[in-house]
């Protein structure tokens, strides 16, 4: 991987450490988007002309590439969505309608991003379901003993992140999935912070739904995927209605297409799908296993560097489990720290990171500053952050 593959970072102006929010796009992804836009920009699965046929071919090729990249075998279907949020909402609406009755339970964690929390909370309220939230311990870890006790015949779905967006906690998916499946409970995984940062094998994990966003794995915005067990999708009604997701419409009723097409109403983001495929190709060339090891080494260096700065507090004990390290610098507000770092060319995020219940549980209403790593980050980026933060810490309030 060459940092110069990423045009925005090529001049060295930025130490970009906000990859959990969005990643930069490498030149091959930008080239693929432009090439498709100028050579075969036409709608898919509709027109018989050559432009339409070629874009349809690329669109379906992208679907196949995404499925292979995430290790989704013949028992899984890839549905293109607007992103992980769109994928989770699709399942929340369609799965609950198909499989749940008043009094049933949906179980999630108190550490979840709002995208994997609010849909379940709100739909449970609307449909008379029981919304259960696994408490968070002072360590920032979920109370897994509570989780085990909460699983019951009334539990119809478990929803959790692969890697949390706040502190980079890697949840024990294999164990969670095993416990849930022993009781016949499907599991949805929000993979937004794992995709593109570590190898993911959906079929190997055995989860029932896996949700990703392309823009968090070096692809374009506005496109993502739901990788789901086909047998579940076949029983789920569509969330949206429109063109090309139907087989036949009469005045009396409508017969829908099989998955994935029944869940892709209207014109899909076909250029985004091409860019998504290009990002997958790029990651394949880079070698994700080696990239994950390098990111973990860099995360450890970041954690060690922050620990050495007087006044810096690291809310989660122990070395990082992923390329996300969050911290605070009392009495500075996290937002002020982020602004002062920005003035020194260091891009980070501050606040509660779409995880209000987590920070409420930890007694940290102002949140934290989050530094998150990507393919192109180097030890120099880490050292630049630490130097800049030392200057902030030296300011007398």
Automatic annotation (TrEMBL):
Organism: Candidatus Acutalibacter ornithocaccae
Family according to the record: Belongs to the class-V pyridoxal-phosphate-dependent aminotransferase family. Csd subfamily.
Entry annotated with the keyword Transferase: yes
Gene Ontology biological process: cysteine metabolic process
Transmembrane segments: none
Alphabetical UniProt keywords: Pyridoxal phosphate, Transferase
GO MF entries: cysteine desulfurase activity; pyridoxal phosphate binding
The protein, known as: cysteine desulfurase
UniProt KW Phosphoprotein keyword: no
PROSITE patterns per record: AA_TRANSFER_CLASS_5
InterPro entries the UniProt entry points to: Aminotrans_V_dom, Aminotrans_V_PyrdxlP_BS, Cys_dSase_SufS, Cysteine_dSase, PyrdxlP-dep_Trfase, PyrdxlP-dep_Trfase_major, PyrdxlP-dep_Trfase_small
